[in-house]
């Protein structure tokens, strides 16, 4: 058997008795998008911050394979169980992870969480899948960044994600875009998630594309709750990081 594939990751170790938090960045993002969370939570928890785009190769990806890579990365760092903190698209990865590897999950915390894409979003994403071969990927990425984060107060979040996506590269962009259609059955995963796994959604009230469905479908999860941050867009972990960190810290203390 060949070596088990893993993601690059950086760890911040506090103590043997501290819980682990695993940070799973969004599509096109990187560990740098968690800068404010690392600074805050490293004082209280052990952290593992994934870099899912760092080690580029020619291998095709699928959703379950990505979850397997995360599981292998936990094994590499001797982490039995953790809280998983996701952003945007990676919330779907973490939901799937909770179905495939429930024994690894203490809780799921979703920044700008997505449960299901609405019709408008599915249409736009289908456009990206179809046009990725002949349209520069950064044109597509900028287009989506402005659709998802349109307001003036979203500018910083938008700028950070565009900057990080420039490092992605065309081939890596295509591999991850191809995963998106595999999330079509995301609602069926909800029944497969262990009721003991607690789930927190933290969304900005100005998250026009995703909040409505998050509010609707999170009710299907018996152990879930949602916190909404006023005057905030989709990437609340950057735009209002102090408020976001406070909500998550309080939640983790309650679930301990």
From TrEMBL:
Q: Keywords for this entry?
A: Hydrolase
All residue ranges annotated as the AB hydrolase-1 domain in the record: 20-239
Q: Which GO terms describe its molecular function?
A: hydrolase activity
Listed SUPFAM superfamilies: alpha/beta-Hydrolases
**What Pfam families does this protein map onto?**
Abhydrolase_1
Which PANTHER family does this UniProt record tie to the protein?
Answer: MONOACYLGLYCEROL LIPASE
User: What name goes with this protein?
Assistant: Alpha/beta hydrolase
Q: Which organism is it from?
A: Methanolobus halotolerans
Tell me the lineage of the source organism.
Archaea, Methanobacteriati, Methanobacteriota, Stenosarchaea group, Methanomicrobia
């Amino acid at each position: 058997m060949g070596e088990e594939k893993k993601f690059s990751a950086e760890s911040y170790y506090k103590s043997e008795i501290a819980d682990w938090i695993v940070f799973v960045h969004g599509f096109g993002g990187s560990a740098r998008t968690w800068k404010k969370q690392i600074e805050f939570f490293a004082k209280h928890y052990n952290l593992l911050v994934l870099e899912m785009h760092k080690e580029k190769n020619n291998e095709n990806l699928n959703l379950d394979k990505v979850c397997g890579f995360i599981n292998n990365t936990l094994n590499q760092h001797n982490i039995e169980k953790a809280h998983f903190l996701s952003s945007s698209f990676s919330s779907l990865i973490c939901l799937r992870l909770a179905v495939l590897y429930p024994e690894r999950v203490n809780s799921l915390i979703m920044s700008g969480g997505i449960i299901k894409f609405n019709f408008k979003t599915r249409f736009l994403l289908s456009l990206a899948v179809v046009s990725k071969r002949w349209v520069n990927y950064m044109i597509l990425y900028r287009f989506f960044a402005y659709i998802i984060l349109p307001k003036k107060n979203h500018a910083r979040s938008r700028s950070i994600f565009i900057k990080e996506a420039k490092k992605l590269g065309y081939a890596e962009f295509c591999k991850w875009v191809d995963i998106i259609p595999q999330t079509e059955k995301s609602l069926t995963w909800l029944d497969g998630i262990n009721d003991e796994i607690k789930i927190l959604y933290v969304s900005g009230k100005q998250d026009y594309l995703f909040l409505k469905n998050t509010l609707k479908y999170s009710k299907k999860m018996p152990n879930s709750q949602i916190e909404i941050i006023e005057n905030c867009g989709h990437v609340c972990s950057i735009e209002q990081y102090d408020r976001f960190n406070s909500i998550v810290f309080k939640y983790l203390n309650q679930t301990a």
